[in-house]
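Appendix B. Raw example, untouched.
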Amino acid sequence: MAFYAEHDNNSVIGIHKGTCSVIGIHMGSYSVIGIPTGSCSVIGIPTGNYLVIDIPTGSYTVIGITTRSYSVIGIPTGNYSVIGIPTGSYSVIGIPTGSYSVIGLALMFFVTILFCCTA
């Protein structure tokens, strides 16, 4: 678990075997690229671009107030939740095989693209 106030660009790239948590105030771009096999949580106020590219096999939760563009690209196989107030563009592209929920108020462009496949 990481606690920080980040004023520069922040990136997390890797294969996360356990729980992945990010809590803080992000003043620059935020990127997460990896294959987390456990739960992943992001709680904070990112004021820059927010990008998540991964294949989470556990629960994924994002709670925050995004003031710039927000993008999530991945294949979540567990529960996926987004709670926030995006004031910029918002995009979700993925193949969730579990429950999927987005709770928030988009003050600008809001896009959700889901490809749900059933066996």
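End of appendix B.
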